[in-house]
Design goal:
The complex is a heterodimer of chains A (142) and B (395). By secondary structure, chain A is mainly beta. Chain A has one domain (20-138). Helix content of chain A is 6%, strand content 39%. In chain A, the strands form two sheets. A five-stranded antiparallel β-sheet of chain A has the order 6-5-4-7-8, with helices on one face. A nine-stranded mixed β-sheet of chain B has the order 3-2-4-7-1-8-11-10-9. Chain B has helices spanning 30-45, 65-71, 90-103, 151-166, 170-185, 199-204, 232-235, 275-286, 303-312, 321-326, 343-346, 353-364, and strands at residues 12-19, 54-58, 79-83, 109-116, 207-210, 212-213, 222-231, 243-252, 295-297, 376-381, 386-394. In chain B, strand 5 and strand 6 (212-213) form a beta hairpin. The model of chain B has no long low-confidence stretch (mean pLDDT 95). Chain B is globular. Chain B has one domain (12-121, 217-394): Thiolase/Chalcone synthase (Peroxisomal Thiolase, Chain A, domain 1). Chain B is of the alpha/beta class. Classes of the chains: A mainly beta (142), B alpha/beta (395). At the A-B interface, strand 4, strand 5, strand 6 and strand 8 of A face helix 4 and strand 5 of B. Strand 4 (66-75) of chain A pairs antiparallel with strand 5 (207-210) of chain B.
Chain lengths: 142, 395
């Protein structure tokens, strides 16, 4: 899925120095997170320096395209014209490599899908206002 | 007395409190509201308002220190500072006033929060629509494009996680809303003074961001609250019985995260927030333990916010918080009466500064829901992303 979905969404600023790499990778169909080239630590959200070794040689490393539901909310009261209610915002855990702590990403689902903590999800990429960004759908979705 | 890092208990006091009317449309500017609350606080203390020489404000406030000083006829302001973010600030703002007084930078410090939270900038409206959202190190670009645009949605996610980890139930959140409403029903100044709320009405109410209903959300208010801080020595000569500042503490959450609030969703745990650390520092400086607290004003931008602080401030174990609330502990006459003016949920949303005012009333014995014999009065200001808290004691 990469086509724009009319009717909802906000376009992210995609050129902030800290986060631009996430959007650039998404445009190439890659899910990435910031990783320190010196010590190998992962960090999300991305930051100006590595919090672990204080180095500033940071890069973007590929992540698996599978995650699990950490928590969610069903938004029933619409406050933004860009997001017709009801819709669901999901917080996703992605384990970057075996044994590493999960990194978290946001996702958007239409309506009120039945969810449980731990449910498997997979990454998709969508485009809004010319910016590509990662999003998530249930692992068994078409 | 515990004194782990040079903190001096009871060196300063809150000597004056003042508020405006709490309304939906003040018709005046936040600066005018701040001045009204400041004048009321000065009159309460028996101090000439022009003798204020220091001001501490919130980073969210539209009233600047300079504008408030100018409005009050203060010709020579010697000290000003600000604390944020938003609801995390009020207790820490009192701490800044103590720092100023103790260091000699100021003698009489006004601490205020003023806002047209209903008729002006409504914080619940969240991220404004724009051609593109985020950037400038706000990190909103990682959240708003998915529809995470408002603080209530953030706290709903935290609540949902608590339901999984600790068995939080909607009944628990309802009880917090109902307790705050009963205190407001006793407080003629509260916006919800005449609006009773029962359990059925709570569960019949609109879901806003599941699992949070409309009554889990704080009010939206036009108004201001202010306190005056000076040395304990000087406080003895003033009009009111001083509320001594036993301790103040600030702390950040583990792996705080950049930006303001939303990046907390990416921290290690949604259920281990800054308040655990605030509490540890606060009690150590005070030489007190949770059981010493007679009455608490626990920050309540949402019911879940209050709930998650119960364990963090040591009133129960995390796995016992649901039972603690169900026991009636939070009600008047319970083990830990909370939010005795009605709180942000039912008195007014002054970003927690009205909690400081009410904590002082409890020390003076003048609350509309007075806890008999209260001598140790706790105020907390937000957990995420950082937070602060204040312990007041009777002299």
């Amino acid at each position: 899925m990469s086509a724009a979905e009319p009717g909802w969404g906000l376009t992210p600023v995609a050129d902030d120095p800290e986060t631009a790499g996430l959007f650039a990778a998404a445009a190439a169909g890659r899910l990435v997170a910031q990783r320190c080239r010196s010590c190998g630590a992962w960090q999300q959200p991305p930051r100006p320096r590595c919090r672990t070794c204080l180095g500033d040689d940071l890069g973007w490393a590929d992540l698996p395209g599978e995650g699990s539901v950490h928590t969610w909310t069903v938004v029933e009261h619409q406050i933004s014209p860009s997001f017709p209610a009801p819709y669901t915002v999901v917080l996703v855990d992605v384990v970057p490599e075996p044994g590493a702590a999960p990194l978290r990403f946001l996702g958007h689902l239409d309506g009120r899908p039945a969810l449980r903590v731990g449910d498997p999800v997979r990454v998709v990429f969508r485009e809004h206002g010319g910016v590509h960004l990662p999003d998530w759908v249930p692992a068994d979705a078409d | 007395m515990a004194d782990p890092d040079g903190w001096q208990p009871d060196a300063c006091a809150v000597v004056g409190i003042g508020t405006t009317e709490y309304s939906k449309a003040s018709g005046v500017s936040p600066t005018a509201l701040a001045a009204r609350a400041a004048i009321a606080a000065a009159q309460d203390a028996g101090i000439d308002v022009r003798d204020i020489d220091g001001i501490v404000r919130s980073d969210y406030d539209e009233a600047s220190a300079a504008a408030v000083a100018d409005t009050l006829g203060i010709d020579d302001l010697a000290y000003w500072s600000q604390v944020g973010a938003g609801g995390a600030a009020p207790a820490a703002m009192v701490g800044q006033a103590v720092a100023a007084v103790r260091s000699g930078l100021a003698r009489t410090v006004l601490v205020f929060r003023a806002l047209n939270g209903r008729s002006g900038r409504r914080l619940g409206k969240g991220v404004p629509a724009a051609a593109a959202v985020g950037g400038s190190s706000s990190y909103l670009e990682l959240f708003a494009p998915y529809g995470m645009t408002s603080p209530g949605q953030f706290f709903a996610m935290v609540a949902r996680r608590h339901m999984t980890e600790y068995g939080l139930t909607p009944e628990t959140l309802a009880e917090i809303a109902l307790v705050c409403r009963r205190r407001a029903n006793a407080n003629p100044a509260a916006q919800m003074h005449e609006r009773e709320l029962d359990r059925d009405s709570y569960f019949d109410s609109r879901m806003i961001a599941d699992p949070l209903r409309v009554f889990d959300f704080c009010l939206e208010t036009d108004g201001a609250a202010a306190v005056l801080v000076t040395s304990a020595e000087r406080a003895r000569d003033l009009r009111q019985p001083p509320a001594l500042i036993r301790s103040v503490a600030q702390a950040t959450a583990p792996r705080l995260g950049p930006g303001q609030m939303y990046p907390v969703l990416m921290s290690d745990s949604l259920t281990e927030l800054s308040s655990t650390r605030v509490a540890k520092r606060l009690y150590a400086r005070a030489g007190l333990v949770p059981a010493d607290v007679d009455v608490a004003q626990l920050y309540d931008c949402f019911t879940i916010t209050t709930y998650l602080q119960l364990a963090d401030y040591g009133f129960c174990a995390p796995e016992d918080a649901v039972d603690f609330v169900a026991s009636g502990a939070l009600d008047l006459g319970g083990a830990l009466p909370i939010n005795t003016a009605g709180g942000q949920l039912s008195e007014a949303y002054i970003h927690g500064m009205n909690h400081v005012v009410e904590a002082v009333r409890q020390i003076r014995g003048t609350s509309t829901s007075q806890v008999a014999g209260a001598r140790v009065s706790l105020v907390t200001s937000a957990p995420p992303p950082g937070g602060s808290a204040l312990l007041l004691v009777a002299s």
